[in-house]
Amino acid sequence: MRRHLIAAAALLLTLAGCSSTAPEADQAPASTPVITTDQADFFAAHDLDGMDGTQIVDHLDRVPVTERPTDLMASVRADQLVLADGEQEIAVPLGEDRFYLSVAPYVDQTHECYYHSLTTCRGELDNEDIGVRIIDETGEVLVDEHVTTFDNGFVGFWLPRDVEGTIEVTHDGLTGQSNFSTSKEGATCLTTLQLGT
Questions:
Q1: What is the distance between the alpha carbons of residues 126 and 53, in angstroms, rounded to a whole number?
Q2: N-terminal to C-terminal alpha carbon distance within the chain
Q3: What CATH number matches the domain at 98-190, 2.40.30.40, 3.40.50.150, 3.40.50.720, 2.60.40.3700?
Q4: Once rounded to an integer, what is the mean pLDDT over residues 90-106?
Q5: Comparing 34-38, 56-60, 185-189, which segment has the lowest mean pLDDT?
Q6: How far apart are CA 88 and CA 67, in angstroms?
Q7: 13, 32, 169, 181: which one has the fewest Cβ atoms less than 10 Å from its Cβ?
Q8: Do residues 178 and 102 lie in contact, with contact meaning Cβ atoms separated by under 8 Å?
Q9: Quick one: what percent of the chain has pLDDT higher than 90?
Q10: How many CB atoms sit inside 10 A of residue 153's CB?
Q11: Model pTM?
Q12: CA distances (Å), 140 to each of 113, 136, 143, 164, 186, in order?
């Protein structure tokens, strides 16, 4: 029992906050478990029942900061969403053809991040209107729109897998640009895009 509690505590520390650790190059992807009754109970307990991985990501990233669950960690990886509550960990697949990239542009302050945490990550520019243009390495425009950042200061985009390119953000006369990659080793949390004149 004590070993399980130590393992659960270590897991929560790993998932807490924004993860700034890049994956090991030879790290094998975690297998996706079949949903059991216990896992179904887990989803119901956290008001996530009936949702697939994509829906959970979209839902949790948009929850107002003051209403975020304090007993749930949710870490977005390239191919799966890892959910944990200190007692149980579940890996939910995110599909083979899409990659969730969460972007927190900033002016003055930011933080290191690699895997986006849907329940703890915070960006500087919350509830702000921004222009976003995402272009892949071939010059194809993947996103070109004006959006409002979520209450957590991020805005998320579902992009094709295995592409690289640039993201340009404009806000209140300021502009910034950053590279991105949606490979299996790619970061799901982009916090290095600084806006300036």
A1: 24
A2: 56
A3: 2.60.40.3700
A4: 95
A5: 34-38
A6: 22
A7: 13
A8: no
A9: 77
A10: 22
A11: 0.84
A12: 27, 5, 9, 11, 19
